Amino acid sequence: MQPTHTLDVDLGDRSYPIYIGSQLLGDAGLLRPHLHGSSALIVSNQTVAPLYLDAVAAALDTIGVRRDQLVLPDGEQHKTMAAVEQILDHLLENRHDRRSTIIALGGGVVGDIAGFAAAIYQRGVNFIQVPTTLLSQVDSSVGGKTGVNHPMGKNMIGAFYQPQCVIADIGSLATLPARELSAGLAEVIKYGLIHDAAFFDWLEQHMDELVAGEPELLAEAVLVSCRTKAKVVELDEREAGLRAILNLGHTFGHAIETAMGYGNWLHGEAVAAGMVMAIDLSIRQGWIDEDVRRRSLALLERAGLPVAPPPGIRVEQFLDLMAVDKKAVDGQIRLVLLRALGEAFVCDDYDPAKLEATLAA
Amino acid sequence: MQPTHTLDVDLGDRSYPIYIGSQLLGDAGLLRPHLHGSSALIVSNQTVAPLYLDAVAAALDTIGVRRDQLVLPDGEQHKTMAAVEQILDHLLENRHDRRSTIIALGGGVVGDIAGFAAAIYQRGVNFIQVPTTLLSQVDSSVGGKTGVNHPMGKNMIGAFYQPQCVIADIGSLATLPARELSAGLAEVIKYGLIHDAAFFDWLEQHMDELVAGEPELLAEAVLVSCRTKAKVVELDEREAGLRAILNLGHTFGHAIETAMGYGNWLHGEAVAAGMVMAIDLSIRQGWIDEDVRRRSLALLERAGLPVAPPPGIRVEQFLDLMAVDKKAVDGQIRLVLLRALGEAFVCDDYDPAKLEATLAA
Asked: Facing residues of A165 across strands?
């Protein structure tokens, strides 16, 4: 099938297209121009492989590319250096050379692990993202952030490494559990909050259909989300400044994920609770009013998301976990806060007492 | 001390200077403009640290940068992912943030490991090369190749990652064992062979003084070598083609290193024997004459280098080890060969029977 939408991420010699539409997964014609060598490795996980791996493999067979596959265990707790090393071992054992292509088929975890392996195998091989979850379609597959977790912090090891293309098949969302669709909607709502009040309005109108999995509306939501992300990444690929606004709710969220143990809260769920905390602090700072909180809570709840952190994380534990965030500079925690609905900024002159009040609340 | 020579590597927004001279190691003024955050980690090895670590540490203290240090075991056999992970753990445990700087103080192994750690810690932190061996001053510290070995092949895991600057203190060569000075001279001679026949002549005139460690001539040899390397890297940073000529003798050499076990033959020694093999094959192909071999053997021997591989590596073993070389495309071994003294090229249409004759010889 032809993609419904094609969006170009403009990064000079690292530019690439994002294809959005239905039944794209097994499309040999889409893959063909992005494969340069004679072999490819499909990296997937135990949940996604039984559903979609055969379609991608068949497309590679059509093109005449030697392929093999590696199926990883599913879940954020497996996003480790050990998984990356498993891929590297597999590539070497099967004589994949520098022109080989790694195809990530799955959610954000598979994309982050496989993308990082592609970044460091023989100092970089071709890489294609085939995200099968809403969260990875709207966020992690776009922009070139790859990497794994360290016991002391999330995404602490990795590289900026852009794919050759992203193939976002909306059809794959039909098999996504409701909880994971919701987790993806957290990032979709984020784009409204940080950059696009009109999109936030649109989400308020269509949230029920999105939760119900209506494909055309999901494709529209993926398109608008990727367009915003691409725009920000084009301006600041390596996160010197602006790009950090994409992390609204993430500093709080990463702390929640680390405190709860990777994999117990979904990333999108932690981000949802984290965004509510960022909104709380922004209100305490006097930058936005209660109306933003009211609308955000309502939208997140309709999306099936938590709107508060889990009980039992102490303020000191939060501060400690937040201090290892990559945005921290010289020990000072920097946060993404809101100046208005649709306008986020990176802030390091908030009132620390107000942050503690937010954490305690 | 002011550097005797400053050479700029021009790579757009990844450009950086190479400082060459005496007593540069402890120069706070040289370091200052290249440090951006408030902390730094010095990575060194057990041989170099007792000699030079205090000088670098004192320079950081002068600038007021919080520093700590990590001393790794010495030797190519320690150039592993485990060493990289040790650095990453240390960085996290000591709360180094994204603005921290990693300073590699030592030879090529330290530079490759520490540079790769800098490339992947928090998706990339600042990195400074302070090479203390001739081999690392003329080769590995320049051009941004970082990485580690895998049991199945040398430098199979890594990244292209450019430093902020390179500080090549010729004074540190005074403490270098003769065998390691010779290993460095192998790469120096390589620049003559691949690109610069006049430099080869100059080396023939001055080899005895270079082996004796004469600082001004060593500085000149480092400058000319780095200038050639910089020129090639500027034209082809990520080794799409031309850059591969820097690997004259390396495909043979890597096979020797792997067959002998990392650390038993020095890299420069394996490259010396490998260059002789590349010359042998180039002669069998009819591209160069015996005179090149005669002059090269004489120069390598005066530099204290081996001119043949160790006995006992079978032809099939050589071919097998060479097939995992990163230059291999679709299973075909590509080699850097000579068209003339001073002119190397990447070749994949040599006669396989002649390659086997070279390996058997």
From this structure: A128
